[in-house]
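I'll show one example:
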Amino acid sequence: MPSKAALKKIRPIQLVAVIFFTVSGGPYGLEPLLSYAGDHAALIILLLTPLFWDVPAIFTVLELNSMMPVTGGYYKWVKYALGTRWGFYEGWWTWLYTFVDLAIYPVLFVMYASFFFPELAQYKTQVCLLIIWSSAGLNILGIVPVGKVSLFLSAVVLAPVVILIVLAFHHHAGALSIPAPSFKGLTFPSFGMALYTVMWNCLGWDNVTTYAEEVEQPVRSYMTSMAIAFVLVMVVYLFITWVAQQSGINHQKFSDEGMPALGVLIAGHWLGVVMAVGGMASSLGIYAAVLLSVSRVPHVMAEDGLLPKGLNRLHRKFNTPYISIIICSLVVSVMILWTFADLLIIDVTVYGAGLSLEYISLIKLRLKEPLKPRPFKIPLNITGLCIVIALPFIVYSVALGGALSSTPKALMAAVFAIAALASAELVWQIILWNKPELKRK
């Protein structure tokens, strides 16, 4: 008889909040876009990148998740479609990119909190560690508490954004205008970094499937919740970018000081404080939601014998992979001193490689098991699918090329990301040396 904790599942409204935080968490982190793209290219990049980068990912995730709504999500799909080796690659790359991703949010929290507590910056490491381990404790309690906290934090994040947009319209004098879209004067490295900025602010749709068995009516819930979350994310991003353009804020100041600086410009110091609170809530919500997703992957990989068995140990009371959560938190605790720009490049580069395996798995399963039940199926044949999934590959290649041709620091970050991807093969060979029977799988 399953325990009471094991029967608790997250509801669709809570799932929307968790997806929102896993993928976005509000416009916090989007600020550098204008400094890279300028007024005339920012909105067109913000409109087209999610169409080419996110939409194919969302539909791929929905189809694969409808076939296999299981704990472990994308890792299980890739392993089933391409074999154990590529399943390990998928899990390993996701683990690496999420460590990088998670390290960003406690640092962002301190940055926004420092807006009205400047002395807090002196205790950045201590505050970051407090956030990391408080979130670990919340995740050990289970998915339902994370869902409830995410729902509350969604309101805290979105309320300041709505207030900012309304006041911007109220204070705006003259006719409303949108800068004419143009890429004139935009260098290739800047274009690549603009793509990276938008891609980072819109990634993670596959992450929300790793706990599918903990969701009520997962196939239907994911379809509805992802659609709502995508629309919410895009509306928030487009309005905030437009407001920043209309305000006339200095692009570099906006990039360096973030949303609080825009709030001060629109309505004074009080709105800057409100936006800083929203940024703090966004950082906390994203961290908890992403930790929820990544902690399930090493758990199922350990069950398959690809990681130490201790990682699949569940908490006796809450039935959560607490060892995996603790190890994730330990690694992130070491990484919080990395710079935001470097983390962004590494994050998107490693994530994109893992996402490519999911696209290949989609094609492989269409060819291998065309009759397998798919409650949701992308209405395209194999040729159509190949054309559609070529779009994110193009975006990914252009962004990586821009980073490689940018500053020496950006180049080093991109090279490090490629080395991190290559580490999967080294670790796989070590696993085979210890478990040669895996060669047959």
Notes: Residues 1-7 have pLDDT under 50 and may be disordered. The chain has one domain: 4-440. The domain at 4-440 is CATH 1.20.1740.10 (Amino acid/polyamine transporter I).
